[in-house]
Prior knowledge:
single chain; mainly alpha
Amino acid sequence: MTAFFALATSLLWGLADFGGGLLTRRVPALTVVVVSQGIAAVVLGAIVVATGGWSEAGPRLWFAFAAGLVGPVALLAFYKALALGPMGVVSPLATLSVAVPVGVGLFLGERPGLVQVGGIAVAVAGVVLAGGPQLRGASVQRQALLLSLVAALGFGTVFALIAEASTTVTGLFLALFVQRVTNVATGGAALYVSVKRGGDALPEAGFPWGLLPALGFVGLADVAANGTYSVAAQHGPVTVAAVLASLYPVVTALAARGFLSERLRAIQAAGAGLALVGTLLLATG
């Protein structure tokens, strides 16, 4: 069950990142975050009301609130780092986020077997390579490096927090709702500050209503990924769940290959293969 839900997390996050990346070519990144998360918050709010999720309110919701604060900060740091580039260095560095939940799992006493340790090492190496790292001529600004590490720490912290936000299905819906509302508030505040400083909130042609379904998909896929990861982490070792869930860059790369006909570089293809081998080792270990 852990492997299934963790791999579902990778699929959903990978597709959400792919869709979000396409949307940011036409709409400012902050607007993509706020609108997509806003749509997800509305849907989750309806689910919480329908399932009576309010009865699950308790101290654990502070984990969801914290995840909602950290998530947008990590995402904005990641986007800024990508803008400073080079992307071939920034993107693989963000996969270091897996170190946070794995470290938490080890701190809490989890001890993966020898096969699983090998699977973790192979899978993480595969994910880094699948990001297409630049091995030559990759001059990196200190600011880009710092922002990449901030993003990795933030993403990993969200992994760890959301796993602790609930213990029941209805409670999980409520936790995800709280996280999304906090995401919207945090992202909205950042968007307001950006506009005050002269940034754009919308494209010149106005709000692209035709992209609303795509924005909704990105937001809902992200929500679903958080939910499946929480289930995976609660039903098995966090060290395994976190590594399998971190395979989403492979999904993003394959989606770009399938939908945009982008050719995978040899190093990316090798990384995807290693990630698959690591997945098999973790699933069978």
